[in-house]
Target: Superoxide dismutase [Cu-Zn]
Amino acid sequence: MAPKNLHAILKLAVKMSEQLILDVDLYLGFNGTNHIDLRRSRVLQYRDAKGVILLDILPQSQCISAARYCSTLDRLKEAIRRKRPGLLRKGVVLQHDNATPHSANLTQQWLQRYGWEILPHPAHSPDLAPSDFHLFGPLKRHLGGMAFETEDDLISELRNWFDNLDVDFFRVGINSLLSRWQKCIDLHGDYVEKPLGELGSIVTGGDSKANVHITNALIPLSGKNSVIGRGLAVHEKKDDSGQRGDKKSLKSGNAVPRLACVVIGRSKSTK
Model:
């Protein structure tokens, strides 16, 4: 849910036009296949409206402590100095969540020392995080079907993909935050977009209606196995079928509360 001070956040976001906005994309993983495994290697990616500024590769299974995160921020500061001359003097606005390494005293001291501002981000709000609503979908579609023999192969493919993206891709992702925040205000703090795991998303409107956007190319919309006309139960999170091993997951798959029951139809854009 969105915080009560959304108007203040929206006012702060206007600084995007004159200051550097960095978006933190956490935890693209690797496990020897094309699947993403959050428990293995991690890539911390930072970008602004002009493109990627830093990819910080963590060794396999290394945890991100506050000290390690501050080390990444040191690398980020140097990367900004090299790639965006003069922007450090104008001021940096950093977007990240309230994960323990981000909220730790050591990290807060680092941010205060260099005068970096934190763009407030409501907890559990992927619909307001550019990484979730703009980046991960295209990236997953690009990596779909690929297999990597080594971690270096995956990292190389990631770098190539980011390097070949048009600058408009980054600009649209960052700038769309403004309209999404405004829509969240219009919806009185409700989700602008509810994630459907690998399927796509459910987008709500002010008229209390919702549209399910299926973005996974593996979901058949035509032919004998078409899902058109079938019922779909929409849950708050993806069902991981107990794979994480914790008691709650083994019992319910962590799908958590059901958001809606819908019948899959076809929009004009999919005909």
